[in-house]
Amino acid sequence: MSGDLTVFLKQLLQNPRHVGAFVPSGKPLARQMTRDLNENSGQVVELGAGTGRISRAILEAGVPAENLTLLEMNPVFCAALKREFPKANVVNRMAQDLPELGLTNVNVVISGLPLLNMSNSTQNAIVSSVFNTLNENGVLVQFTYGLRPPLAEKVISDNNLTWQKREKVWANIPPADVYVFSRKTTQ
Known about the structure:
Elements: H1 3-14, H2 27-33, E1 43-47, H3 53-60, E2 68-71, H4 75-84, E3 89-91, E4 106-111, H5 120-133, E5 134-144, H6 153-158, E6 161-165, E7 177-183
């Protein structure tokens, strides 16, 4: 059993509410989440970095480690992330705390958070913190195992967001959809 999976399963058994899946994200999902990233993507933030599967894909896409901030509220995952990604900014905080980090020039936030398992008020707090941190044209990339967008319609409306759905990642267990959220443009 890989080290990632061992750590993941141990944390899942100890605190299932803080681990949003039954297995870590697969490489095909990680590639789909990061497909638009490259060395010119600027500052990138990952919410719920977990075992670092998507973090690795972000770096493989060309984003310099110095431009990557990983937020993870599980201290065991956070310690492992700090060891694996010593040049990245690894922070043991909740997604709602993002504006308090003082990050600037953030173009992309990638999220593995289980938003469909959260209340509308929690979703709203997270989305507000993300879009208060992102540049004007920044995007939130979020995956879901659900059959609908991973944000409640009210949260999307209240935050003046629009979204695009990418093709389903059938090679993930379970299959996942990737959504890209951005602010509606005013014309």
